[in-house]
Amino acid sequence: MKHKVTCEPLSRASFQPYGSVICPDDEVGLLNDQYRNANQGTAVKLINVCNIVRDEVHGGSTPNLNLFRCFSNPELQKCSLQDTSSSLNHAIKILEKHPFSSQTFLPLGGATQEYAYLIVVALPSQNGHGKDLGPDLSTLKAFICKGNQAVTYGKGIWHAPMIVVGKRDYIDFAVLIYETLDPTKPELDCIERNYNTEETEILVSLFNFTM
């Protein structure tokens, strides 16, 4: 079965069912003057900009700040993000989730107003007893993100690995997550679902969206 979704620009409202959006420019623009003073007037402090969640797990988990260098796909580098008359279908081969922790991706060093990366998310499909049956592909969404936008995936939200778009060779992300790092039980930190067969196909239509 083929599941096709068209990407759309990332916004707080549209991403809310899947997690949080962090955008300093937007946050600062919403502040009143009384909140524009920190560190003796040399900074603005933004409080609780995303929802960090951890469930208790046997053996405990620790907060880890990891670095990911995510490389671009050569096919995606060939397309112009400004050309909305063109379209390219990008296949998603895997979705994953972190059952006991949220996960925050903070892009490093990119131009703030350029579209930089694509995220693909889906809600969990659950039975009447709350058991996760895998991704609910009817809730599949794809968002195109600017360099000044970071995201936090909610606990248990299915998502694809980061997809770099545009002309850059790679994007570095700082990633905050709670992990057990138990090599005998990797499923406590990450569960994957593959979609590289003809039985189920996930396609994202890129660049055919409203700027």
What does this structure look like?
By secondary structure, the chain is mainly β. It has one domain: Jelly Rolls (Sandwich), CATH 2.60.120. Helix content is 7%, strand content 40%. It has three helices and 17 strands. Strands 2, 8, 11, 13 and 14 form a five-stranded mixed β-sheet that branches. A five-stranded antiparallel β-sheet has the order 3-12-7-15-4. A hairpin with a 5-residue loop joins strand 9 and strand 10. The protein starts with a strand and ends in a 5-residue tail after the last strand.
What would the keywords be for this entry?
Jelly Rolls, 211 residues, single chain, 5-stranded antiparallel beta sheet
Number of strands: 17
CATH homologous superfamily annotation: Ureidoglycolate hydrolase
- The helix content is under 10%
Give me the CATH fold name: Jelly Rolls
What CATH architecture label applies?
Sandwich
Oligomer: single chain
List the helices and strands and how they pair.
Layout: E1 2-6, E2 8-9, H1 12-15, E3 19-22, H2 24-29, E4 62-71, H3 74-77, E5 88-92, E6 94-97, E7 103-108, E8 115-122, E9 124-126, E10 132-135, E11 141-146, E12 150-153, E13 158-159, E14 163-164, E15 170-179, E16 191-194, E17 201-206
Parallel strand pairs: 1-17, 2-11
Antiparallel strand pairs: 3-12, 4-15, 5-17, 6-16, 7-12, 7-15, 8-11, 8-13, 8-14, 9-10
